[in-house]
């Protein structure tokens, strides 16, 4: 297998036509039979792979040129809000501050570090971010739709999340960050697969457009404090970062194994 095929398999899982801005093939390669996967790839993973006879390293979080253009994937926040029924202008305004702050921090990032080492080492290397988060979003949403019934409570939503083995075995279980476990969920929005969590802006837009419960995989404390003050009657559930990432990553790695690739996973405990 080659690196193009490794990327294509991920794109095909969610029907994406192009490699999104937060994903990239950093060093091309072919004849790949043994592969190392890590959510975060550093020099250590590249060196470990070379020392132990792996033919390719696949990471999740953006690195290299995908880190430099990562900010562009934040457009997906606006699109997802619109998909969830938020009017276009409101969706744009709700995501503006976060899109700008990620744009600025993309300029701060040292995007060269693993890229240059992999090139010098001639180690085939790619990172696949949004396609696998999008897959995770769909799987989370599907599970919730299957389990939802009238009078569904936040604790039932937590139970549905715990059905995922990735979430079940995570050291930090899902959290009801706003609301109480016995409160009805009302309408639930799964907001994931958009570069990062939607922070204050996306949750606010969802709360104002008919959703009672927002599911994020993580959130910053300042955003949570603002939401708690402004929407005391609404609910927010945190499913957990790495466990939720793995919900989309595991089916991809399983697909590679089905195609005869040996995979070592340096994630998912
Ligand atoms: Fe992540
Ligand atoms: Fe992710």
Report a brief summary of the structure:
The chain is of the alpha/beta class and 269 residues long.
Report what the structure shows.
- The protein is α/β, with parallel strands linked by helices and 269 residues long.
- It folds into 2 domains: 3-132 and 245-262; 134-240, Udp-n-acetylmuramoylalanyl-d-glutamate--2,6- Diaminopimelate Ligase, Chain: A, domain 1.
- It is 50% helix and 13% strand.
- It contains 12 helices and 9 strands.
- The strands form 2 sheets. The protein has a 5-stranded mixed beta sheet with strand order 1-4-3-2-9, sandwiched between helices. A 4-stranded mixed beta sheet has the order 5-8-7-6, with helices on both faces.
- Helix 1 (3-14) runs parallel beside helix 7, helix 5 packs antiparallel against helix 10 and helix 7 packs across helix 8.
- It is globular, with a radius of gyration of 19 Å.
- One fe (ii) ion (FE2) binds at residues 60, 133, 245.
The main sheet comes to: 5 strands, mixed
Work out the strand percent: 5-15%
Radius of gyration: 19 Å
Kindly report the spatial arrangement of strands forming the biggest sheet. 1-4-3-2-9
Total strands:
9
Whole-number mean pLDDT = 97
Total of domains: 2
Q: What is the H/E order?
A: HEEHEHHHHEHHHEEHEHEHE
What gap, in angstroms, lies between the N and C termini?
A: 27 Å
The amount of helix comes to: 40-55%
- Poorly predicted regions are none
**Quick one: overall form?**
globular
Q: Which ligands does the model contain, each kind named once?
A: fe (ii) ion
**Total helix count?**
12
């Amino acid at each position: 297998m080659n690196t193009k095929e490794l990327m294509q398999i991920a794109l095909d899982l969610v029907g994406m036509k192009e490699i999104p801005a937060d994903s990239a093939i950093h060093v091309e390669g072919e004849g790949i039979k043994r592969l190392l996967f890590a959510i975060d790839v550093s020099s250590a993973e590249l060196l470990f792979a070379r020392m132990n006879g792996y033919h390719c390293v696949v990471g999740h979080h953006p690195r290299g040129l995908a880190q430099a253009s990562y900010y562009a994937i934040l457009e997906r926040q606006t699109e997802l809000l619109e998909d969830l029924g938020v009017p276009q202008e409101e969706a744009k305004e709700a995501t503006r501050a976060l899109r700008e702050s990620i744009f600025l921090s993309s300029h701060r990032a040292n995007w060269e570090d693993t890229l240059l080492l992999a090139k010098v080492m001639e180690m085939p290397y790619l990172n696949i971010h949004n396609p696998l988060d999008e897959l995770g979003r769909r799987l989370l949403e599907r599970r919730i739709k299957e389990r939802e019934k009238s009078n569904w409570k936040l604790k039932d939503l937590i139970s549905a999340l715990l059905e995922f083995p990735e979430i079940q075995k995570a050291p930090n279980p899902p959290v009801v960050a706003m609301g109480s476990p016995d409160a009805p969920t009302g309408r639930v929005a799964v907001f994931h697969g958009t570069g990062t969590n939607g922070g204050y802006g996306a949750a606010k837009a969802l709360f104002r457009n008919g959703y009672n419960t927002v599911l994020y995989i993580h959130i910053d404390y300042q955003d949570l404090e603002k939401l708690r003050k402004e929407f005391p009657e609404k609910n927010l559930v945190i499913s957990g970062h790495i466990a939720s990432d793995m919900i989309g990553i595991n089916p991809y790695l399983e697909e590679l194994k089905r195609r005869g690739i040996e995979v070592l996973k340096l994630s998912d405990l």
